[in-house]
Write a structure and sequence with these properties.
Elements (H helix, E strand, L loop, with lengths): L5 E6 L5 E7 L2 E7 L1 H11 L15 E6 L5 E7 L3 E6 L2 E7 L3 E7 L5 E9 L9 E3 L6 E2 L2 E2 L18 H6 L2 E2 L15 H8 L4 H7 L3 E5 H6 L2
Parallel strand pairs: 6-13
Antiparallel strand pairs: 1-2, 2-3, 4-5, 5-8, 6-7, 8-9, 9-10, 10-14, 11-12
Length: about 220
């Protein structure tokens, strides 16, 4: 068709689509369905750029990226224990509930934001329940890393070891409130109480539901 030619679509009451073309003053009419028109439009769209994630970290549950090279990656952390640090006290093999981490990474590989939350056990779905993070340094889902420096990411698979690194960063009473858990304990007392428990103990005795889902964790930000 030239610039002077005309294409007109008419949607009929019976959902048929009338395609009317006019080329060199000659009109042609034919009928088609909506699916055929939609397929034609999709094939005509040119992609602005291909997004390549590279190798994703283990236990990745969500990935998104844009043409500018920014990424968001969510990882479920299924380790039942990890080393943590509170002020100057190190707790080796401290029991943990099921954690999820979210990383916003810019095109240069800088980690701009970290999300941290607690989700339920079992098979994960977008509707999986989220619980109030029972420790400190987290507000809603946003983790405060303070003056701790984070490594630059050149490939997303490097995120594999980052949860261990984050959990071992020294933390304090920032954002901690006793009502974060069913136990209503001072933070130091809470850690001492939990250090010889297991992951299941959190779900039976400690955690409070947030009223949010795993999908909220992934999409908020």
């Amino acid at each position: 068709m030239s610039n002077d030619d005309i294409l007109t679509l008419h949607i009929k009451n019976d959902c048929r689509i009338q395609v009317e073309t006019e080329e060199d003053g000659v009109k042609l009419v034919k009928y088609t369905d909506a699916d055929s028109i939609l397929k034609c439009l999709k094939l005509s769209v040119k992609l602005s750029g291909w997004i390549e994630s590279g190798i994703l970290p283990q236990n990745c549950i969500s990935y998104s990226g844009d043409a500018s090279g920014n990424h968001f990656v969510a990882i479920v952390f299924d380790a039942k224990k990890a080393d943590i640090m509170f002020e100057k006290t190190e707790y080796i093999n401290f029991p943990l509930p099921r954690l999820v981490f979210g990383f916003n990474i810019d095109a240069a590989g800088n980690i701009e934001e970290i999300r941290l939350g607690v989700t339920e056990e079992g098979r994960l779905t977008p509707k999986s329940k989220m619980f109030v993070y029972p420790f400190s340094n987290v507000s809603d889902f946003k983790l405060c890393t303070g003056s701790n420096s984070l490594p630059q990411i050149t490939s997303l698979h490097q995120l594999n070891g980052l949860p261990y690194f984050i959990l071992k960063m020294p933390n304090n009473y920032d954002y901690y409130k006793e009502e974060r858990t069913k136990l209503n304990m001072d933070y130091r007392s809470l850690l001492e109480h939990l250090k010889d428990k297991d992951s299941k103990y959190y779900y039976d005795n400690v955690l409070i539901e947030m009223g949010k889902t795993l999908n909220d964790f992934i999409t908020e930000g």
